[in-house]
Amino acid sequence: MSKRIDVEHLNVYYGDFLAVEDVNINIEPRSVTAFIGPSGCGKSTFLRTLNRMHEVIPGAYAQGKVMLDGEDLYGRGVDPVTVRSMVGMVFQRPNPFPTMSIRDNVLAGVKLNNKKISKSDSDALVESSLKGANLWNEVKDRLDKPGSGLSGGQQQRLCIARTMAVKPDVVLMDEPCSALDPISTIAIEDLIHELKEQFTVVIVTHNMQQAQRVADKTAFFNIEGTGKPGKLVEYDDTATIFQNPREKATEDYVSGRFG
Amino acid sequence: MSTNLSDTERGQDDKQQTSSLASAASAGGRAGDKIFSGLSLGAGIVIFVMLAAVAAFLTWQAAPVVGIPASSVTGGNGFFSYVYPLVLGTLMAAVIALLIATPIGILVALYISHYAPAKVAKPVGYVIDLLAAIPSVVYGAWGMTVLSPALAPFYNWLSETFGFIPLFAGPASATGRTMMTAGVVLAIMILPIITSLCREIFIQTPQLHEEASLALGATRLEMIRQAVLPFARTGIISAIMLALGRALGETMAVALVLSTGGLQWSLLTSGNNTIAAEIALNYPEAFGNRLAELIAAGLMLFIITLIVNLIARTIIARYQEFSGAN
What we know:
- The structure holds two protein chains of two kinds.
- Chain A is α/β, with parallel strands linked by helices.
- Chain A has one domain: Rossmann fold (3-Layer(aba) Sandwich), CATH 3.40.50.
- Chain A has helices at 43-49, 80-86, 102-113, 119-132, 136-139, 152-165, 182-195, 208-214, 238-243, 248-254; strands at 5-14, 17-27, 32-36, 60-68, 71-72, 87-90, 170-174, 200-204, 217-223, 230-237.
- Chain A has a ten-stranded mixed sheet with strand order 5-4-1-2-10-9-3-8-7-6, with helices on both faces.
- In chain A, β1 and β2 (17-27) form a beta hairpin.
- In chain A, α3 runs parallel beside α6 and α6 (152-165) runs parallel beside α7 (182-195).
- In chain B, α2 (24-62) crosses α11 (288-318), α3 packs across α6 and α3 runs antiparallel to α8 (220-249).
- Chain B is built from eleven helices and no strands.
- The relative contact order of chain B is 0.13.
- Chain B has one domain: Orthogonal Bundle (MetI-like fold), CATH 1.10.3720.10.
- By secondary structure, chain B is mainly alpha-helical.
- Chain B has helices spanning 2-17, 24-62, 78-115, 118-133, 136-162, 179-203, 207-215, 220-249, 252-257, 275-282, 288-318.
- Chain A binds chain B through residues 51, 53, 56, 58, 81-82, 84-85, 88-89, 91, 93, 95-101, 108-109, 112-113, 145-146, 148-149, 159, 162-163, 166, and chain B through 118, 206, 208-219, 222, 226-227, 230-231, 233, 319, 321-326.
- Chain A: One of its GO terms (molecular function) is ATP binding.
- Chain A: Keywords: ATP-binding, Nucleotide-binding, Translocase, Transport.
């Protein structure tokens, strides 16, 4: 399943500090959307509000609406735990559970939501998830070895397999390649193209070539100065953002004339 | 004198010439490295020497026990039948203490590290650390005068209801100064050790792993079971071992609380004794063979501690590959 995301007038706070101001954005299902912008502009912060991971930080909260196929994630009585099982997340640094085998890492999320899973079902799920993450051939002979023994790129694909195994509607990626070498980066980017067929993918990246390679649409976030809130400056087709942006700030940033 | 001077001058010249690669700073750093590695090696050796010295002392002082005729040993049936009730008593007290203190300690540590708001967590942490600073004789006095009489009616009820279990067989002690009370006092004494060590370890769980778990849709409890506890496993075992060490060796609290006597399977009657308390109660008046007996009992305690620690190391080693240290 793949769902659309509609954000209306979202303000994101850390305590009293307004970190991101008044974001409105509509993200289509089965698409890849990239968030770009300078460091500290709030793009990662905003990404984390899409699965309510933002509020894990003490004092952090968000106001406004985030609709997943029309259902408000911040509506009354909505459990963040449920939201996070529908909106998966891949982090900047690969973070497989070091205390678990590769197999158990893939099943980690499934075992939370559905404790009783038969051996054959779980075997099939491990295989399909690892195949989906283009990792199966590399690890099929050592599923019982610790996940922390893999290379960085393999670990990141293991994390993607772990996220896919839960069968979310949306996959969020917070700079998933920034800790990886170019070869591993290309492997992840190829994977993102395939993920698009099943999921809505949102990716934060500092690499503008990467945004151009993977994203259908691109959103540019910017900040006017320290202590000011981050804002969504421009959101359009990736080609438009990089070749013919409406805003001067966007043009300066994508052409490298920024700061 | 003059040759010395010229040597020094030449040395300075050399230094200036070679300063680009082998600068004075890095040479000093290398020497510092050697000194430090020597120091830490020395510290490591000191530990081994001390351990060996203690073992040698105990063995040497306890050796006469071997030559004593069985009828002359306290109790009149040889050293083994003298010491095994003490060994069992020691283990009983320590096991009761661990059974009570481990779950409570881990729960309190989790509360401080993951549940309590920062404003509450700090004071609770301080209070727990403060508990560790109370001298054991104070715990013993409190256990004897306050806790024992308070628990006596409960023991009475326990023995009437669950008396069919040998551990709870009646009649319960009227004073409450039983193995159970000693175990409870020990539990309170080792609680701070378990709590503060576990808290330190729980706090150090990488945020990455906690977020990984939460992002998969874990509740806070599931996150703790998935990310925090497995990561802390080695540390928890170490904390329990340190606590066990104190429980096994604790003297004053047990000596004051327990109304000592022969081996009893019931934890609710007076009787039983621990090695440490036996030594403390009898050492001042012991000489000759009696002294050797007591020291031999001490040697038993030493051996028990070694065995327990070996078991713990084995458990930790089994999880090595999945410890997250690689």
